[in-house]
Structure formats: structure tokens, C-alpha cells
Fold this protein.
Amino acid sequence: MLEAVNVSVIYEGGFKALNGASVQLAAGTVTGLIGPNGAGKSTLFGVLAGAVRPVAGEVRLGGEIVTQHGPAWRARRGLARTFQLSRELASLTVLENVLVAQPHMRGENVLSLLWSRRAVRDEEDAAIDKARALLQRVDLWKLADAPAGTLSGGQKKLLEICRALMLDPRIVLMDEPSAGVNPTRIGEIVEFVQALRAEGTTFGLVEHNMGMVRLLCDHVYVLAEGQVLTEGRFDDVIANTEVASAYLGAQS
Amino acid sequence: MTVYLIATLTLVAIAALAGLALNLQWGMGGLVNFGLFGFYMLGAYIAGLLTVQGLPPLVALGVAMLGVAALSALSALISVRLSEDYLAIVTLGFAECLRLVISYEGWLTRGMLGVSGIERPLQAWWPRGWGDTGFLLLALLAVLIVYTVLQALARSPFGRLVRATRDDPGVVEALGKSVLGVRVRVFAIGGAILGLAGSLHAFYYSYIDPTQFGPIITAYAFMAVVVGGRGSNRGVVASAFTLIFLLEGSRFLIDLVPGLGASELAAIRLFLVGVGLVALLIFKPDGFGREPRSALADKTSSRF
């Protein structure tokens, strides 16, 4: 379980992106963060992932206070994330992008390369099998040897999801996974997430596609101006008139 | 002519080593090491000073490699939070400091007088008159070993991680890997190779002084990597070869073009190298070589 308690973030220049926001991602559920642009969703995401350090409040991962730990530390404890704007490793191939996420690779240690070549190869082969299974699920295996920088925007999003899942994460934070993705592919992402949730993976989702939020999210937080406006089941939350004016009103 | 060829090839080998080291650090790792010549100089001085103290040259070479590797790793630790441009400034400053220390701490380094009488390794092995050839073979062997090791590293999971930190260190952090750890290791390995290149420089000339070392060494190494293609070890070796032969071979222009003085020729040679580089960056900005891959979909060539 991952939670942020009363976190505040002030960016350089004094902009208060978050003002005492609290969210909880219960184990084995999909939690959505919605709200208008500038509400602080991505900042809150950064706080949960460890990329943004809050000036106040704390972050707990599995009950442990992790506010002071960075993204690498949290990733090693099972917290994976994708980015709002795809951050593929452009010059690496699609396959390499996924492989690089594999944890505990002895082949990343220079001395092991000398002394335990066989173990390194076996690990690499196992990692390739795992990567292939992930890439085949999103139909990217046929592009395995293409440089990731040559993929389309939607394919990059899918690649990032595969890369995050390569960590065997307990918790996955996805920042607008549907942005730029072909509508038929969005269905695949939804199925993918539902299958993993059934296996016990926890998800946090920032998303503007309300259809996807409705399909996926067990619990939704509505953010506005750096604070949690309301929370609950999607249908209940969306019926709330305050939300309609803060979020949906802003769209219509 | 043979003598000249052997001399030039020895220079090629040393330049190739410096290029390969930079290809690991900057080509694969994205770490702009403008201080390359400082590490190279340090290698030359450690090897040279220890050899004239009576240590066997090969032992001195080993110490130089380890010493430069350690100092490189340290400089990577200091510059952990620096990205491209700032790292370039820090490494350049570091190298200049090193040069000043070596130039003026005469009690240790003999200052501007330089270190002379540096003995070459394994000289007893070769028949009389074949010393230069023997040394060339040794230098080529060094290039071969370093090339093989770097190729294996480039294809390994470690090489993949190094290229990943070049493309986006933030992603590598988010995947739970230590970017600092990668950078320190890359700087250490590159430093060892620069220590080797510097040692060979000292052995080859048998005399070193601070004026032999300057940013031009860094510039040539960057040229080799740019022309060879960032990340391509093969390309870097080939371009080091081409570059040195162009620089050296153009000396003979003086025989071919009438009315050309030595000083004009010197200027024209550098000018031509510059023109060639600019033309290359216009017509083939990625250089000639290609970066090796760690794994391919069919698995057959994912060997390292």
C-alpha cells in the first residue's frame, strides 16, 4: 500500500503545486487521480514515485515512511512508474529498453562478466524470455530490434508500461497511459491492467480519458488547486456537482 | 620509410587507446570528459617516474592504470550531480590543475625539465635494432586487448545500462538502478585505459615534459569518436588510424606542392583536418560506425 499524507509541494518561484493533499492506494486496487490541468496530479505522482520531494507531509510505502528516499530506492522496493511524456531510451532498441529494467542482473556488474559468464548468460536469456512475453502482449515484439526513438507516440507509451512491468512491481504508477494511444490499444491496456490487478498488483493512474477511468478505477480522487476536492467511487464522484464545476465544467 | 611507418603506427595505437577510452565515457556513457588529457598525462607521469626510479616498466604501467582509474573514479564521485556542460567544465579544470601541479611541483615531477631516460617494457626481448617494432607490437596488442574488452562490455548488460544512463539518467533511477554507480565505473574503466595510453606515450618517447600534454589530445580523441560514430569501438579505432595518417601523411605535401613552406604547411594541415571534420558533420553527422547491441530478438547474436 502506498499513501501520501498531507503533502505540500512548492516549486521554485513560489508556485504551490500541492497544498496538503492526501491519497491512499490500497493494495490490489486501481486508484485514479483526476482533475483539471494544473490541479497537481502529476506533482502528486512525482511525490509518490520519489521524483519530487514535498516540503511538508510524508509518503508511506507498505507502512514505512519513505519520504526521504529517492525513486531508485522506491523502485527497488517494488514501485514502478511510467511518465506523462514518454521517456523511452531512444537509442536503445525496444527489446533493450525492456531488458534494462530487469532487476538484479549480475551482468551489470563488471566483475561478474569476467567470473560468472554462464550465470550472466542464463540470466540474460531468462530476461529476454520475460521481455518477449510482455512485448508480445502489446504487439511490440515485431519491432524488438528497432531503436525505441523511432516508435510512434502510442507505441512508446506501451513500451513504457512493459518496461515498468519488467520490474515485477507491487505498485505501478501510470501517468496518462492513454495519451496518444490508438483507441483499440486503449482496450488492450485496460485488459492488461485488469489482469495484473487480479494477480494482486496495485495501480495508481492519472488519466484524462474518463471512459478508461470508469472501466478501471476502484477508487477515484479528484484534485483541484493542489488539494483533494473529493474521493470515492467514480460514478458517485462524477455525480457530485462540485466536481462537475471544477473539472467537467472546465471541459464543456 | 619503414621507420616512419612504424613510428606513425605507434602513434595510431596510442591515439586509438585514448579514443576507445573516450568512446566508453562519452560515446556510450554520455559523460563529457574534456579533462581526458589530464588523465592521460597522469598516466604518463606515473609510469615514467616509477620506471626511472627503477621499477620494471610493466609494473609501472600497471600502477599507472590503477592510479588513473582511482583518480578518475574520484572525479566522477565529485561531479555526481553535474550534467553534460558542467561536467565538461569540471573535468577540464581538473586536468588543467593537474598540469599545473606537474609543471611546478618539481621535487616530485622534475617540473618543466621533464623526465628523461624512461625505459621501455620488454626491450630485452627484441633483437638489436628491432626495438621500435617490438614496441609497436606491444602497443597493438594493448589496443587489441582493450578493444576486445570494450566490445564485450558494450554487448553486455552493463553496456546496455551505460547507454541507458546516457539516454536518460532519470529513467534509470526510476528503474531502481544507481546512476552514480554506473558513472563511477565508467570513469574508472576509461581512466585505466587512459593510464595505459599515457604510459605507452611515456615509454615511446622515453622523455616527457608538461608541454607534450594539452587540450589538443582531448580534441583528437573527440574527433576520433565523432568520426568513428559515438559508441562504435570499431569506428573509433578506424578513425584514429585515419586521423593520424592524415595528420602525419600530409607532411609529404611539402614534396608534392612547390612553393609551400614548412610553417604554411603546418597551418594548412590543421585547416584541412578542420574542413574534413565540418564536412563530415554536415554529410554524416552520426559518424561511420554503429553501436553494438546487447540483445537481438532472435537471440542468436546476443553474445558477449
Observations:
- Chain B touches chain A through 35 residues (CB under 8 Å).
- Residues 2-214 of chain B form one domain.
- Chain B has a mean pLDDT of 90.
- Chain B has one domain: 2-214.
